[in-house]
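To: structure desk
From: M.T.
Subject: fold request, one chain
Message: Could you run this one when you get a chance? Sequence is below, nothing fancy, just the single chain.
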Amino acid sequence: MSVADAESAVLRAQAHIREQGLHLRGWALGLVCLLLGVLLVIQLRTQRAVRRTPTAVRPAPVAVLSTLVEVNARLHQERATLRSQIAECQQASPQDRLTNLVEELNRLRIVNGLVEVTGPGIEVCIEGSLNPLEMQDLVNELRNAGAEAIALNGERLVVSSVIASRGKTLVVDGQSLTSPYLFQVIGNPQGMEAALTRQGGLLSQMHEGRRITVTPKARIVLPVHTQSLQFRYAEPIETAKTVSVLER
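Reply: Done. Structure tokens follow.
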């Protein structure tokens, strides 16, 4: 029932009472009907206000529980994987342990830019200005696309590389860089090119006011990182303590 319908019903009731000549009783009944009509109108308006008021969307308990179960399952899987790796290391022969250590050392040397590396990849050339945030987004995009090693304008980029600005000049690891910016990246050329040039990707959003080219290369040589990696605050834990923590 709408507000207009309620008010119309009250008026009809009052008119009927007056026609029957029930003056005193009619006024009493009319007053009661009027009060009922007012209450009905208030109730209808309250219901409308409640329907219009947005309610906060709260996550369902089942969804929260499902998420917790998934996270717990992943943690258990990660723990099982680490225990399996520890068991393999303990059962491996001294020669296998040495081989694994050498391979891990070589990977760390590549990641930290301590050795010159070569392999297939792509070159990304950008002609135009870039701010530090755009440059960092592009570096992250390259790594997400499968980059194993990156150099920018002949300077090797590593995990500890710092991208900043000095006035309007872009500064990477303390070196001032100017356009054009040439990224040399080692990785799967086809996969990285497809990831970078996809419609709606980062490079497509950066094309306005800039000239960007992506060129696959059969062989790229990247130099050694010019700055030495030094730890001033971190110190290694004793071997015995490390093994104890891993065996838990």
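Reply (cont.): The beta strands are 117-127, 149-152, 155-157, 163-166, 169-172, 175-177, 181-186, 211-222. Let me know if you need anything else for the meeting.
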